[in-house]
Design brief:
Helices cover 10% and strands 45% of the residues. By secondary structure, it is mainly beta. Strands 1, 6, 7, 8, 9, 10, 11 and 12 form an eight-stranded antiparallel β-sheet that branches. It has a two-stranded antiparallel sheet with strand order 2-3. Bound molecules: zinc ion (ZN) (2 copies). One zinc ion binds next to loops.
């Protein structure tokens, strides 16, 4: 790519008579003849506006031989005696004829200007940028989640009081009964049933396998040709060129500008396709049969409950083919004050644990900001 170089001439302001925008080629003010010096910002040149996108100077470049030679003379130096600025390639002050000494100050040639620096190279895929964005969103959510969890898990202590102790006991009576069921032929084998003794030792059995007919048992996936699957994706492609310029101050009122055409990238959508095997669902049939067997069936149930401290089992007598199933539930209600009246219900696991709770007793509680309650010590621990 060809580079195009231009020399841009700066301007300065005279601090003696306030004449503004004097071209750099004038080493003395055309109005008052004051020599340009280092002081009073006289040697800080203005190079005018640049195009924000390309970084190209909006000024015309200089082409006359005199100006080009002044630009090529190197950085200016300032006379130790009179302070006047001089061309980098002259050994004697043009103002007072003093010699340039080893200590004479010079204007520095500046490094490349940041203005108009080329844009960062485009990512090969647009997806990379958005991936980064989602990463930040994720981290943000994680941090927020962490903070909330921390806040929620902060605890404080309160004292509660037991208001009620409740028990509920249920007895289920079940009978071993003859029932008709359906099953898959390959999972059935004839077995004689055995009746329970004291509710135990029973065998359900399988008898009278009959009425077998095919029924759908499931499905299977069968290959059925191929299909083309396409996804629309985006990639960066070259789409012409764009001009980018770098500028460098030469330390003498001139600026060197180098422009070149760099590739421009545009997002382009394309179809990413793939050939895949297609599948279809096919029913699978199997023989289903009716058979006789035995099963436990609930025929009766008694419930008893109370708020005293003497839990009792309801009375229920089993028949010869029966069994009894027992169920017990306990609850201790604890009132406490925590920005309003609240209730915590604790469920003891056993009768002995239940009996250790007394109505009216105080209970130390630990409550966190989510409202979940822990009983601190005592009864619940055992
Ligand atoms: Zn002047
Ligand atoms: Zn001098």
């Amino acid at each position: 790519m060809a580079k195009r170089t231009r020399i841009i001439e700066g301007t300065w302001n005279c601090t003696s008579c306030d004449t503004r925008a004097i071209l750099a080629r004038h080493r003395s003010c055309p109005h008052c003849n004051n020599p340009r010096e280092e002081t009073g910002k006289e040697s800080e040149f203005d190079f005018g506006e640049v195009d924000a996108v390309s970084g190209k100077s909006l000024r015309e470049g200089v082409t006359d031989a005199k100006a080009l030679s002044a630009a090529a003379a190197g950085a200016d130096w300032f006379c130790d005696y009179c302070g006047a600025s001089n061309r980098g390639d002259t050994p004697i002050c043009r103002n007072c004829r003093a010699k340039r000494s080893a200590t004479s100050r010079a204007l520095a040639e500046e490094p490349d200007e940041p203005i108009g620096a080329p844009h960062p190279p485009p990512a090969p895929f647009a997806a990379r940028g958005s991936g980064r964005k989602w990463l930040y969103v994720g981290l943000g959510l994680l941090a927020c989640f962490g903070t909330c969890m921390y806040w929620g898990s902060r605890t404080h202590g309160v004292t509660g009081q037991v208001t009620t102790t409740e028990w509920t006991r249920t007895v289920h009576r079940e009978t071993f009964q003859r029932v008709t069921r359906e099953g898959w032929r390959n999972e059935l084998s004839s077995t004689l049933p055995r009746m329970p003794v004291n509710g135990m030792g029973e065998v359900a059995g399988v008898e009278n396998i009959r009425n077998c007919f095919p029924r759908q048992r499931g499905t299977r996936q069968v290959a059925d040709g191929t299909e083309r699957v396409c996804k629309t994706k985006t990639r960066q492609v070259k789409c012409g060129t764009t001009e980018k310029c770098k500028r460098k101050k030469m330390g003498n009122g001139y600026m060197k500008e180098v422009c070149e055409d760099v590739p421009k990238y545009c997002s382009k959508r394309y179809e990413d396709c793939d050939t895949r095997t297609r599948y279809r669902s096919e029913p699978v049939f199997d023989l289903s049969c009716t058979y006789d067997t035995y099963a436990w069936k609930e025929v009766d149930r008694r419930v008893e409950s109370g708020r005293d401290s003497a839990p009792r089992w309801p009375e229920l007598r089993p028949g010869s083919l029966d069994r009894l199933l027992r169920e017990e539930k306990y609850a201790v209600r604890i009132d406490y004050e925590d920005s309003g009246a609240k209730e915590h219900v604790y469920e003891p696991k056993s009768e002995s644990e239940f009996l250790s709770w007394k109505r009216g007793q105080s209970v130390p509680l630990q409550v966190n900001n989510f409202g979940s309650v822990n009983i601190l010590a005592g009864n619940a621990v055992r």
